[in-house]
């Protein structure tokens, strides 16, 4: 009796730890979503049940689809939080899922907890795509937090828009300073290290000049003409 309980426990443990986590990171326009969709479609073609998730904050191209910058679409669930997915999808349907794709993962605050539960407890294959850094090259959201629990991590690169070399960073074209500013080529471009640094210097100089101009205008307005 004891041996059967042990073997049953081993089988349950084996099943619960059979999940995987795979992560695609990089700057904007590096093909993260394309890589994610390619993997998801491959899993679906192999007969596995798949579901795609994205943040409801990202409605640039479609509300209910993950869309690459060149227009490739895949239907998805748009959610404010990942932990809502199981209830919205249905518990019975969730149990039958094999693979979960997550796009624009930097927008999900509960990314780490969801990935742990889906892979470690529920035995799902979780494929994640997201920005590893913001426009200031700081950690963006909790994407980097799942590296220690990931089976694989793939750092993708784009092509520098200014010189054509490999681009590792995202340069913001506007003066907005909030971390979350959703947009495409109208707001961002991929750049190499040299052009990221020079671009940041140019933007900083522009801000200083504009600030000085504002101060000068204020002084002139406050000066009495005799």
From TrEMBL:
Molecular function via GO: ATP binding; identical protein binding; metal ion binding; thymidine kinase activity
Pathway: Pyrimidine metabolism; Purine metabolism
Top-level division of the source organism's lineage: Eukaryota
PROSITE patterns in UniProt: TK_CELLULAR_TYPE
EC number from the UniProt entry: 2.7.1.21
Protein biosynthesis among keywords: no
Keyword Transit peptide assigned: no
GO BP terms, alphabetized: DNA biosynthetic process; response to stress; thymidine metabolic process
Active site per the UniProt annotation: 104
Broad EC category: transferase
SUPFAM superfamilies per the UniProt record, alphabetical: Glucocorticoid receptor-like (DNA-binding domain), P-loop containing nucleoside triphosphate hydrolases
Keyword field: ATP-binding, DNA synthesis, Kinase, Metal-binding, Nucleotide-binding, Transferase, Zinc
Binding residue positions for substrate: 188
Reaction(s) the record says it catalyses: thymidine + ATP = dTMP + ADP + H(+)
InterPro entries assigned to the protein according to its UniProt record, in alphabetical order: P-loop_NTPase, Thymidine_kinase, Thymidine_kinase_CS
Family under the similarity heading: Belongs to the thymidine kinase family.
Protein's name according to its UniProt entry: Thymidine kinase
């Amino acid at each position: 009796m004891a041996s059967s309980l042990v073997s049953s426990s081993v089988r349950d443990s084996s099943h619960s730890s059979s999940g995987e986590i795979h992560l695609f990171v990089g700057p904007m326009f590096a093909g993260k979503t394309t890589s994610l969709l390619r993997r998801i479609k491959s899993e679906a073609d192999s007969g596995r049940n798949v579901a795609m998730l994205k943040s409801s904050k990202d409605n640039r191209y479609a509300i209910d689809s993950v869309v690459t910058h060149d227009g490739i679409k895949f239907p998805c669930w748009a959610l404010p939080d990942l932990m809502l997915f199981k209830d919205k999808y249905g518990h019975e349907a969730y149990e039958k899922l094999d693979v979960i794709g997550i796009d624009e993962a930097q927008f999900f605050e509960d990314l780490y907890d969801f990935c742990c539960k889906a892979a470690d407890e529920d035995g799902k294959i979780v494929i994640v795509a997201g920005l590893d850094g913001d426009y200031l090259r700081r950690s963006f959201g909790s994407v980097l937090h799942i590296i220690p629990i990931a089976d694989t991590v793939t750092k993708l690169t784009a092509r520098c828009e200014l010189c054509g070399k490999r681009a590792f960073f995202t340069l913001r074209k506007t003066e907005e300073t909030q971390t979350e500013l959703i947009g495409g080529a109208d707001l961002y471009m991929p750049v190499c290290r040299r052009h990221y640094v020079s671009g940041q210097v140019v933007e900083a100089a522009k801000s200083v000049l504009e600030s000085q101009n504002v101060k000068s205008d204020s002084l002139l307005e406050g000066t009495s003409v005799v």
